[in-house]
Amino acid sequence: MSDRSLPExxxxxxxxAGFAGLCTAVKLxxxxxxxxLVVEKGADVGGTWRDNTYPGAACDVPSxxxxxxxxxxxxxxxxxxxxxxxxxxxxxxxRESGTLDRFVFDTTVEDACWDEGQQRWVVTTSAGxxxxxxxxxxxxxxxxxxxxxxxxxxDFGGEVFHSARWRHxxxxxxxxxxxxxxxxxxxxIVPEIQKVAGxxxxxxxxxxxxxxxxxRPYTRLERLGLRHLPALRRLYRTGVYWARExxxxxxxxxxxxxxxxxxxxxxxxxxxxxxxxxRDKVTPDYELGCKRVLISNAYYxxxxxxxxELVTDRIAAVTPTGIVTADGTERPxxxxxxATGFHTTDLPIAAQVTGREGRSLAEVWAExxxxxxxxxxxxxxxxxxxxxxxxxxxxxxxxxxxxxSQVRYIREAIRTMREHRYAAVEPHQDATDAWxxxxxxxxxxxxxxxxxxxxxxxxEHGRNTTLWPRSTFNLRAxxxxxxxxxxxxxxxxxxxxxxxxxxxxxxxxADEFLEEMPA
Length: 519
Ligand code: NAP
Hints:
By secondary structure, the protein is of the alpha/beta class. The protein has two domains: 9-143 and 344-514, FAD/NAD(P)-binding domain; 153-208 and 246-338, FAD/NAD(P)-binding domain (3-Layer(bba) Sandwich), CATH 3.50.50. It has 16 helices and 20 strands. It has helices at 19-30, 48-51, 83-97, 184-196, 220-228, 230-245, 248-252, 259-272, 276-282, 299-303, 361-368, 399-420, 429-443, 447-450, 472-478, 508-516; strands at 9-15, 36-39, 103-104, 109-115, 120-125, 128-137, 159-162, 176-180, 199-203, 210-211, 294-295, 308-311, 315-318, 322-325, 330-332, 335-338, 353-354, 384-386, 424-427, 487-490. A hairpin with a 4-residue loop joins strand 4 and strand 5 (120-125). Mean pLDDT is 93; it is low at 495-519. Bound molecules: NADP nicotinamide-adenine-dinucleotide phosphate. The site of NADP nicotinamide-adenine-dinucleotide phosphate has 25 residues, from helix 4.
């Protein structure tokens, strides 16, 4: 639909066609809410799985769980899928959903402003302007590549690119390659580059904890079973789900009980690396879980290979021909791969969304920190729904589960609005503050706060605004119903004198929901 002109109005405008946008489209359609558009800057569905095509890209959550509950894939070929299989799955779900006629590709959202008079969002895109009752933002928390601020990097004479914008046209065979970063992306890239590069320098600022990856292709029998026995698939998915939930106490309450995982990680180092000096360099000095726990069997052997050097000296500058570290050493580089992560606590979309008081989400968050009510709605921004919003990320399980939970909440909100003919809903500041205070109190006990590391989970003030500090079933429970009492609601097409017809302003609503969470 990318070459079609946009309609002037739609009921729901969805930004992003990754797992979040697609889930929203499928479920809105299922609810009979057919008047929606999904606007996507790229040329295809898939989001992060469309963009991250680097060699070795794969998911750290088994595919049986990292997929929609309503669209099982009977054909996964292995326990942890590689990117092409996940992307093909998303494309298939989109195709079979019958909603693709309402997706607009190659179209960027430039800004979105709330029109209080019309009670609508006015969304300016590269393909025209659309007015929408509801704005659902599913543009992702890991979609805007973060480039390192290293002196001289703009003047580098060789090829340089980010892990999420892989240049498949650049042949690395026999080249001198440098990878900056040792996060989830880098540890998948490094073993692949090591196989072909002449020489590889890996620039590590902080070592990650890396445990073994229990990945394998399914046997023929397993594939037959998973294809023909839906009950087996469900059992497998349920088993993976609960196995993952058992990690939660170690992350959120008692990091010390993660010692078996730490032993596994130490054994992984010992197995992969013989040199004691290199072993020391890759052994973290913070609690396991503080940064994302990574999984790989290939990373440490790759670091130990003859054509690889792990560089732990601070990078001082990039020259036109190489990288200079703080000790003055210059290492020549032909191709520079920047695996330095994403803008996670300063989401670019926030600068483009302007609320009821004429302030952007970025301005509001600059004051208050990146916060939302239940990770989904924001005071001052009526009818705005964020998917994978503040404090909904996970360190242990499938974001698809979170996305489905949030989409359920949004559907409930829309159903409530229809039923009561509300033109707009907006969470109370009190309820939002109570929610976030409570959440941050819980956060203080987690390994992300106490583990002795810095990470992309934390904002510039050291506050964790990205992760959910409880189990995923807690999150699903708090998002199960649209709690209209925590919202200011407005009548349709309000007369100039009519203001809020709000329900209660009880700040305790969020508290009650959090209290209801099982321990
Ligand atoms: P990341 O985890 O943020 O890692 C970035 C790496 O770059 C870190 O090692 C960081 O060091 C380093 N770095 C950043 N700026 C630097 C600088 N100026 N100089 C030197 N080093 C610098 O990013 P990512 O690896 O792309 O992963 C992001 C997230 O995406 C993951 O945590 C995960 O949630 C998701 N992901 C998942 C998978 C998977 O499922 N397998 C794969 C890829 C990504 P410090 O640690 O010192 O900051």
